[in-house]
Specification:
Blueprint: H1 2-16, H2 20-39, E1 48-52, E2 59-63, E3 66-68, H3 75-102, E4 108-116, E5 120-125, E6 129-134, E7 149-159, E8 163-168, H4 172-182, H5 184-187, E9 191-199, E10 203-210, H6 217-222, H7 227-235, E11 240-245, H8 250-257, E12 265-269, E13 274-279, H9 284-288, H10 293-302, E14 305-310, H11 311-321, H12 329-337, H13 343-348, H14 351-354, H15 362-397, H16 401-416
Parallel strand pairs: 10-11, 13-14
Antiparallel strand pairs: 1-2, 2-3, 4-5, 4-7, 5-6, 7-8, 9-10, 12-13
Length: about 425
């Protein structure tokens, strides 16, 4: 019996990855419950004691001074002991999984797509347990098939109805850890990732620096013919990646972050971490990017506010502001430099905010705001009138008398309203 018992323990140890002491405690707990059941004693009346020799495997169960023989354990007591052991082993397994994956928070794991649900993707993590990628944690480019191998960032591990391993494909940490895997120089600490700015499914900017002058940080991350960065892009399902050279000189870093645009001038407000960036008119769209993405990612990468403009756009904004009677040349330049070059912005701002600007008092601020509102309103009326005139011209050309009459009625309604 002793050798057989030790053999079973060894097998459970190997298959379940459990500590032998945990298994021995599970058996003790189970035999204690079973002994109480057959002896019909309450725990406070007579002590139940279980002794297990860890070397020989001999088991002795005592209730008070009396030893309970194995033949005395009936079918019900044996079933009870079995249920307790199974429960304890399951609890121990859950604890092991929790500890293992809790230590992996902030790293990446690989798994197979096991189930595709309406609200989440379930991964089989090497047969040990399951990981959940909620739909809100998926990249817009993610499209998975059953059985497909996927890497994901371990976002959170919690004990809730068992062990829940929450994974993410949107987190910036996924990009960081993929670079760790693909670029040996990062793993060795020669190349360091300084910062990451990501818009999942679209574009990521990664700022890198080298601790060894002989190692080109950007070249190391790109790899021969782009092999290393291509592997990461494939894992991210085609998301674009810009690798930027980090610099202690914030202006140089900002220029690299705003690439591929060529920067003409950068004016820094170091106290408030704001930068005014001037580019040529043909570089403005490149610097700003589609829907403002390039400048937005660059600002997050360098952790500064960035205002990108061309000289032409600045001059145009000043010209528009000079149409307001309350605004002179210097005031117009101050407003544009402070980011208030648009009439729509001026119309919505509070006077006490505008009055804080150099050379603009509270009275002047109120006048500027009121005039901006009136100008905007006049511009809207002018646009509507122009549109109506254009419509009338189109009606005059229309040869269909029915449609012409209907259009005239619609215009009359608009004018009356």
């Amino acid at each position: 019996m002793g050798k057989e018992f030790l053999s079973i323990l060894t097998q459970l140890e190997r298959e379940k990855g459990l500590d032998r002491n945990i298994l021995l405690e599970a058996v003790k707990s189970a035999l204690t419950v079973a002994a109480k059941k057959i002896s019909k004693v309450a725990s406070q009346e007579e002590e139940v004691k279980v002794e297990i020799d860890p070397l020989k495997g001999d088991i002795h169960v005592y209730v008070g001074d009396k030893e309970i023989l194995s033949s005395e354990f009936g079918r019900i007591a044996a079933q009870t002991a079995r249920q307790v052991i199974i429960q304890k082993i399951r609890e121990a397994e859950k604890d092991n999984i929790y500890k293992e994956y809790k230590d992996k928070e902030g790293s990446i794991v690989g798994g197979l797509v096991y189930r595709i649900e309406r609200r989440a993707i379930i991964l089989d993590l090497m047969g040990k347990t399951e990981g959940i990628i909620p739909n809100s944690f998926l990249s817009p480019l993610d499209r998975f098939r059953l059985g497909e191998r996927v890497k994901a960032f371990v976002y959170e591990v919690k004990k809730e109805k068992g062990v829940q391993i929450i994974l993410s494909r949107k987190h910036e940490g996924l990009v960081r850890k993929l670079f760790d895997l693909e670029v040996p120089e990062i793993g060795e600490g020669i190349v360091e990732i300084k910062s990451i700015a990501r818009e999942p499914g679209e574009r990521t900017k990664v700022a890198v620096a080298s601790k060894d002058e002989k190692v080109d940080c950007v070249g190391a991350c790109v790899g021969i013919r782009g092999s290393r960065v291509k592997s990461i892009i494939e894992e991210l399902r085609g998301e674009k990646i810009d690798i930027v050279r980090w610099s202690e000189d914030i202006k140089e870093f900002m220029k690299a972050a705003l690439s591929p645009a060529v920067i003409s001038m950068i004016d820094l407000d170091r106290d408030n971490k704001r930068a005014k960036v001037l580019v040529a008119s043909d570089q403005l769209s490149l610097a700003i990017g589609r829907r403002g993405q390039n400048v937005r990612l660059a600002a997050r990468l360098v952790s500064w506010e960035i205002d990108v403009r061309s000289r032409e756009s600045i001059e145009e904004s000043i010209k528009k502001l000079l149409q307001l009677k309350a605004v002179g040349k210097k005031a117009a330049e101050t407003l544009v430099d402070s980011g208030y070059g648009d009439l729509g912005v001026l119309a919505k701002i509070e006077p006490n905010v505008l009055s804080k600007l150099k050379g603009i008092g509270k009275k002047k601020a109120t006048s500027i705001i009121e005039e901006a509102k009136k100008t905007l309103s006049a511009n809207v009326k002018t646009s509507v009138s122009a549109a109506k005139e254009e419509t009338k011209k189109e009606i005059a050309k229309d040869e269909n008398p029915v449609s012409k009459e209907e259009a005239k009625k619609e215009i009359a309604k608009d004018e009356n309203s």
